[in-house]
Specification:
39% of the residues lie in helices and 18% in strands. It is α+β, with helices and mostly antiparallel strands. The longest helix has 21 residues.
Amino acid sequence: MGKKYEADPDYLLTCRRIITVIPNLAGVLGSLQKALDRSVYDVHVPLDRLRVAGAHREAGLEVIRCDYFLFANFCVLNVENWRHGAAYKSVVRLCYWISKVFWLAEEFLPLFKPNPWSSPYINCVARKLCA
């Protein structure tokens, strides 16, 4: 991340915000992605919330908030390399329906909260330090 800002220091003008959304492959979704399609997993660098915030700080940004987002969403799993296989549609549908059950439960049960283990995303809001 820091290399982008070093290469283009005007990328964020003074006091502007940047919102970063990354898949949480450091949790269970990373293990599932690795099992379903290792080539997709291998192009990612699994980061937890602290490492995402740290990368923003290393790039000279002030982190406003960095948190896990949603309890679960299995639709982020990438099985596009299976597109021509017999199981593709079934896997995509299964991911959708499992996710939908969690989304409904999330609304009614306070037990289902964003967390490092099952959350599909890490969102980080940061801004360039004002001079």
